[in-house]
Amino acid sequence: MVTNPGRRKRATIHDVALEAGVSRGTVSRVVNDEPYVSAEARIAIEAAIEKVGYVPNTAARNLVMQRSQAIGFIVHEPHSLFLEDPNIGEILLGANAALSLADFQMVCLIIDSERDTDRVARYLSGGFVDGVIVVSARKNDPITRIIEKLGLPSTFVGHPPDLRQLPFVGIDNRSSARAITERLLATGRTRVGMIASALDRDSGADRLAGFTDALGPLFDPALVARVPFYAYADGVAGMRALLAAEPGLDGVFAASDAVAAGALEALREAGRSVPGDVGVVGFDDSAWALRCQPLLSTVHQPAAGLGERAAESVLAQLRGEEPELGGILLTTPIVWRDSA
Amino acid sequence: MVTNPGRRKRATIHDVALEAGVSRGTVSRVVNDEPYVSAEARIAIEAAIEKVGYVPNTAARNLVMQRSQAIGFIVHEPHSLFLEDPNIGEILLGANAALSLADFQMVCLIIDSERDTDRVARYLSGGFVDGVIVVSARKNDPITRIIEKLGLPSTFVGHPPDLRQLPFVGIDNRSSARAITERLLATGRTRVGMIASALDRDSGADRLAGFTDALGPLFDPALVARVPFYAYADGVAGMRALLAAEPGLDGVFAASDAVAAGALEALREAGRSVPGDVGVVGFDDSAWALRCQPLLSTVHQPAAGLGERAAESVLAQLRGEEPELGGILLTTPIVWRDSA
DNA sequence: ACTTACTCTGTGTACGTTCACAGATCGGCC
DNA sequence: GGCCGATCTGTGAACGTACACAGAGTAAGT
């Protein structure tokens, strides 16, 4: 073998058959746990497998079976995701756990450039995976088009791209935001504001809508600070703006934990105590929440659960089941700590 | 096809040949960009490929070529890694970039349980990948054994497991620690201590050794606080211990950025100003470094570079080149900010 | 005219597996 | 004894590709 000088040739099913003194068919039956094999043949074959160190060749098996027993996990724009969003790791683990249980192999594909897009497209078309889980697809994503064209079973984590009818798993940002705001109001706060991030994304807009729902007639647009991103710096800026608009503020809902952390910094700077003067709540239950002083009350994102459900959804499609039309929304428990 | 009801049958090289009115061989030559194809045949075949929507079947190609054009990226203990270590994402991206350039597909394999180990082992044995990059292998890792047994080209990121002679890519913790300590001393500090973490790991022990190197005759064992982990809480505890041992301390080298962040908290608590009273430096240049107040001076871990070099090392082995015996050590620039 | 080289094309075989089918053996039952 | 079903085994396809080889055609050099 010229291409791989150091690799010794692998044992095939034929070698096992020869060693055990039976035919390929019988060996295949033993390997795949099928009935109609005599006890003595089974024992001889198992011994032969052990002796020659036989491992089935997956390429050959895939070729004839027309499946790969693997599911792709596609991550787009990893720079921002890996650095900002600790959830991606959890989603990945959740998906891996569910696939593992079904004896499927997860294959994690990173798209980081134009070049990657083409290669991943080829990879998907090449029959390497039986289905895909897509995290953070963009609008007009060529990968999305290819998945549709191939008819590849797929489930998206987060909101579905464009307006296509593709199965997805997500959380209900709106009712979660409403719930934590109501919980904050229940502590007796009367002037509650929000630092609203990323209003150009579904998640950001929905969190603001939930906040509005919770306040009802009490809602005051002057108590909403609009900031571009979910980041720490946005929290600092947003909080300063809110304090300037309403010094008597006694509660704040921050659109993310990082934003909440920034808000805490601005409050400290302004000499307000938390939760004494102002109650603060966040969203995500990320690492930030435990890094804050005081510990943050927040909405828990069931990241592992999202991955798990996405995996199950793909597997269900593989079994021929129809995916839920409206997508799957997971519940988001409130984690009440010290900041409110 | 019973297993995949919705999938329409894929076009094969045969369909293309029929459509273009040539033979399989000629189509194969066009697909693989080989010479000795007439212009008209090439045009007809390209049109036919477009028309029938042909994509090469990777399983079939792998079977006959005895390779997969894919490299595995194995991550062990992802829980701790994804949560504690932001570097893993960078390493992944660096490796992906290098593999992408060589037109290899990266396949990311997560090992999260016993079950995963077995499945990944089967996956590797199944010829799905031509080589592997291993991040954070443990001692006596069954995966390591399997890699050795298969003779699979591999490169480890970080220190090599056990005492085996396997290629690896890492950083020189010792000289990096020495360099940043010397830089701290150069600011005129005279009583410099260290919070030393994870002395049971190579990285932790080496960082302490580098610190000792830098101080030379000035080294005072009383100014080393030993803490178990690289975490924030360890930094708080370590700093308190150091201040108790030597109130006149004017510089600290923390074994990681998280530890440094904890140290800053303890210093604030004790009423010391940074960098006025005490200069603080960390290690890693992780997200912590920019989250600290003041911004942390630290050692930059070239995480993307580690991934890149690991990928290149595996590709070199695939070309039949001998791997460097002592492993590859990358340089670690010092990032000087405000904390010292 | 005859070799020689080069260009282009089609065919057969191999890769390692699964599956359908055809036999073979055996026991029980009418 | 003949028939049937159950159990067990071997054989020949097929999956879709790459590669070696043979052969045809063309052009140039001797």
From TrEMBL, chains A, B:
<keyword id="KW-0805">Transcription regulation</keyword>
<keyword id="KW-0238">DNA-binding</keyword>
<dbReference type="InterPro" id="IPR000843">
    <property type="entry name" value="HTH_LacI"/>
</dbReference>
<dbReference type="Pfam" id="PF00356">
    <property type="entry name" value="LacI"/>
</dbReference>
<protein>
    <submittedName>
        <fullName>LacI family transcriptional regulator</fullName>
    </submittedName>
</protein>
<dbReference type="InterPro" id="IPR028082">
    <property type="entry name" value="Peripla_BP_I"/>
</dbReference>
<keyword id="KW-0804">Transcription</keyword>
<feature type="domain" description="HTH lacI-type">
    <location>
        <begin position="11"/>
        <end position="65"/>
    </location>
</feature>
<dbReference type="InterPro" id="IPR010982">
    <property type="entry name" value="Lambda_DNA-bd_dom_sf"/>
</dbReference>
<dbReference type="Pfam" id="PF13377">
    <property type="entry name" value="Peripla_BP_3"/>
</dbReference>
<dbReference type="InterPro" id="IPR046335">
    <property type="entry name" value="LacI/GalR-like_sensor"/>
</dbReference>
